[in-house]
Amino acid sequence: MSDTTPDQSSNIVHSEGVRIIAFLRIWTLFYRRGVVRFMRFWVESLLGPMVSTMLFMTVFALALGPDGEMVPGLSALQFIAPGLAVFVLSQTAFQNVCFMLIIDKQEGVITDVLMAPLSPIELLFGYSLAGIANALLVALLLLGAMTVFTGPMLYSLGVTLFFAISAALLFSMIGVLVGLWSDKWDQFSLVDNFLVLPLGLLSGTFFTLNRIPESWQWLFEANPMFWIISGFRYGITGYGSVEDLIWQGGTLVCLILIMVFCGWLLFKRGYKIKS
Fold it and tell me: How far is the CA of 33 from the CAs of 46, 229, 250, in angstroms?
């Protein structure tokens, strides 16, 4: 005999139905608005980052040569490749979400989205998940293409996935904040050129921390992109410190939660999307 009363059974069925409907609503916004859009413009969203990054790798290969070591046991190209891949991943996640929100606002499509029965958290993840999918796909294609220069590399799949997904999630949330704030493309370009790009260039992608004067090292260690690239590089090559990995990963999760809360709050208040 079942111990579940009819009322309890009804509540369970109702809860399951609510979860399924919420999933379908997020899936519709994520897939129809996001994935279909970036796959339709695959030349810009997928091929563009791949071509520019592989050109970077070609220049480094010609300048540094195949045998030059950046750190013991790793060639310069093997050291640079993971950092470059995850930096492109982060920038792609940020740009994808910004483009979606700014275009939807400028074309008035955001009104149709707001009229749908979507909660603030569903709106947040519906937009951001598309940027995450685009970014992870670009990174996967890049890592495959980079084996031409580096050979196959993978030290820890779990660590690699954690930092890749964390990077995509963090920068997609930043993309949400900037996309909601931006009324025109100049504002987006301002953040992209003076925040996202410098964070990537000053993150240890192309150099080790011991090349920086000791009095300035704290500035680089405070950069979230430094945590992401250090962790992702460890997952790909095994180079790095496990102790640093733990505090960097924990701090990154805290930062992501703050960004998620800020994005949810802006959608809840209808910041710059409700008259």
Answer: 17, 30, 32
Global confidence as pTM: 0.85
Return the closest-CA partner of residue 150 out of 230, 264, 208, 68: 68
The stretch 31-58 carries a mean pLDDT of 75
Residue 130: phi and psi, rounded to 5, are -65, -40
144 burial level (CB within 10 Å; 0-12, 13-18, 19+): exposed
CA atoms 22, 18, 265, 115: torsion sign: positive
How far apart CA 170 and CA 93 sit, in angstroms, is 9
Tell me the per-residue pLDDT of 135-169, one tens digit each, with 9 for 90 and over. 998 999 999 999 988 888 999 999 999 999 999 99
What is residue 75's three-state secondary structure? strand
Write phi, then psi, for 74 (nearest 5 degrees).
Answer: -130, 135
d(CA 171, CA 129): 11
Q: Please, what sign has the CA dihedral across residues 193, 196, 202, 205?
A: negative
Provide DSSP, 40-74. Answer: HTHIIIIIHHHHHHHHHHHHHHHHH-SS-EEETTE
Distance CA 210, CA 100 (A): 40
By mean pLDDT, which of 187-196, 216-225, 230-239 is the weakest?
A: 216-225
Q: Which of 132, 126, 98 is nearest to 112 (CA)?
A: 126
Amino acid sitting at position 140: L
What CA–CA distance (Å, rounded) separates 205 from 197? 12
Backbone angles phi, psi at 75, to 5 degrees: -75, 165
Quick check: 209 and 244 in contact, CB under 8 A? no
Closest CA to 82 of 239, 220, 249: 239
